[in-house]
Design goal:
By secondary structure, the chain is mainly alpha-helical. The chain has helices spanning 7-22, 28-37, 42-57, 63-75, 87-96, 98-108, 111-116, 119-132, 139-162, 165-181, 191-198, 205-225, 229-243, 248-259, 286-297, 302-309, 313-321, 323-328, 343-364, 371-389, 397-417, 421-476. Among the domains are: 7-259, no CATH class; 281-341, Arc Repressor Mutant, subunit A (Orthogonal Bundle). The protein is built from 22 helices and no strands. α3 (42-57) packs across α8 (119-132). The radius of gyration is 37 Å and the shape is elongated. It binds a DNA duplex through α17 and α19.
Length: 477
DNA sequence: ACGCTAGACCATGCCCGCAG
DNA sequence: CTGCGGGCATGGTCTAGCGT
């Protein structure tokens, strides 16, 4: 660790830093930087300068960049590499050099800069920001995160294979940017604009103006992000990746699942928070539930069943609590994954049974039943069920017919004799639509059901006849 | 097509009773 | 007291239905 009192430091490091930032013509950043150098260490100053270079030039991990950095280190006689600076020094430097941090933040959120940069860039900036925001990371943790983020870089490449390359990469980097800064990526803000707005000397009211500019940019991002579903998908998955590695297939599956949802508010929790893998809700079918109930009745313990079926013990308890309901229910279609608990299930079960009987009957007759006809039949049966669902006393068909006839007569009478026919017609149409339609449909359904019943009776009768006739033939033989 | 809502139900965490 | 089995309350997720 070198002391700042080293008389040669100021001039040498200033030159180096100016050299480093010359490419981007951001000399002004030195002025910000200078405020922090007075009592800090050489290593810290150099480290911050290195970060500045990384942020501005993009990819520190390239061999060429590393060589330049080593050269710079050699020239000022510092042994410290940029990854080896002390966290205490960095914290101090960052807290003192708030303007510098703002600059780094602004530059690092620029899409051109980040887009050309590496994950390592973000890692280092993240390190800066973590220290600045009060979440200092232990060195080992920092390195572990760096390792993970580099692995995440591989994930970026995978994503690029399944999505638009630049888009996906920017999305991931944007997500990483969120994670690094707790602030979003300003993806449409070019580097030159950043430098123009933020790279000039920051003094007095101008600083305030620039702060407002940053806030405006943040607001701009807020508008952009709401339209970007993929951002949240990749963001969330990157968070998961940073916590617990997830398989690529699993991730794409999650992406498909989450694309259906609206964009959720970008999370801004501290970067050290690790996310658990997204849980997947399993659906236990009626068949499986029945198996569970039967095994339990045979003496199998709840805990064993839970282990066997890979569910929580309380889930088994819940199933057992609903034992009667589950056992009473049935799926007319063997092998069909009839989802238990679906609120439509109970309504549909009866309909399924009737439908199965009907289809079986047609199969026995050698008919091939088209899907459309099956669906139509299902609708009919379902309608009949709904009528019973109401729980009211069924209205006799004759009463409905009489009622409808009376209504038609009433309409006819009013139309003939009322002075304001237009108004009456309008009111009559509304009433007919809202009240009378129900009874007309009810009558129609019953007529269909009667036809079906007749059909079943005829079928059953013909089958019975067939059986009897074949039996008599057997007897004769 | 999309968003909202209600209902169903699995997952989680906490609590209680019981046996050793 | 401790560990285990089971129940209960609550939250999260999914799906169907409905309105716009």
């Amino acid at each position: 660790m070198h002391d700042v009192c080293n008389p040669s430091f100021s001039e040498v490091s200033r030159n180096i830093i100016l050299e480093l930032i010359a490419e981007r013509k951001a000399e002004c950043s030195w002025r910000h930087f200078r405020r922090a150098k007075a009592s800090t260490t050489c290593e810290t100053v150099f480290a911050v300068a290195s970060v500045l270079r990384i942020v501005m030039l993009g990819n520190v991990m390239a061999d060429e960049e590393s060589a330049q950095l080593s050269s710079a280190v050699a020239r000022v006689g510092l042994r410290a590499a940029f990854l080896d600076f002390s966290i205490g020094d960095l914290e101090w430097a960052v807290s003192e050099a708030d303007l510098f941090v703002r600059l780094v933040k602004a530059l690092a959120t620029d899409s051109d800069c980040i887009g050309n940069g590496s994950i390592a860039t973000l890692t280092l900036v993240r390190y800066l920001m973590a220290a600045h925001d009060g979440f200092p990371l232990a060195r080992n943790e920092f390195r572990e995160r760096k390792r993970r983020l580099e692995a995440a870089n591989g994930l970026v490449n995978d994503l690029c294979q399944v999505a638009d390359e630049r888009r996906a990469k920017l999305d991931v980097i944007g997500a990483l940017s969120c994670e690094c800064f707790g602030a979003p990526l300003l993806e449409h803000f070019s580097l030159s604009e950043s430098l123009c707005k933020l790279g000039t000397p920051c003094q007095g009211g101008e600083l305030k103006q620039r702060t407002l500019c940053l806030q405006a940019l943040a607001a701009r991002w807020e508008r952009v992000k709401k339209k970007e579903v993929e951002h949240s998908v990749i963001w969330k998955n990157l968070r998961k990746f940073d916590g617990v590695p997830i398989e690529y297939d699993r991730m794409t599956q999650l992406m498909e699942s989450q694309k259906r949802k609206a964009f959720q508010v970008c999370e801004t929790s501290p970067p050290s928070v690790e996310m658990a893998p997204k849980k997947v809700r399993k659906v236990i079918t009626i068949q499986v539930k029945k198996e569970i109930i039967q095994k339990n009745e045979a003496g199998c313990r709840v805990i064993d069943l839970a282990q066997e079926y890979g569910v929580r013990h309380s889930t088994i308890s819940t199933i057992l609590a609903q034992k009667e309901k589950i056992m009473a229910s049935s799926s007319a279609f063997k092998g069909v994954a009839c989802v238990s608990g679906n609120r439509r299930a109970s309504i549909n079960e009866e309909m399924e049974k009737l439908l199965a009987i009907w289809i079986n009957d047609r199969h026995l007759k050698g008919d091939i039943t088209p899907t459309g006809i099956i669906m139509e039949k299902a609708r009919d049966l379902s309608s009949a069920d709904e009528e019973e669902e109401e729980g009211r006393q069924p209205i006799p068909t004759t009463v409905i017919k009489k009622f409808l006839k009376n209504w038609e007569e009433l309409q006819e009478f009013v139309n003939k004799n009322h002075p304001e026919q237009a108004e009456v017609n309008r009111a009559g149409d509304i009433y007919s639509e809202t009240a009378m339609r129900h009874f007309r449909q009810l009558l129609k359904k019953r007529q269909r059901q009667t036809t079906l019943d007749n059909f079943f009776q005829v079928s059953a009768f013909s089958k019975q006849q067939k059986i009897e006739s074949s039996g008599s033939v057997d007897q004769l033989e």
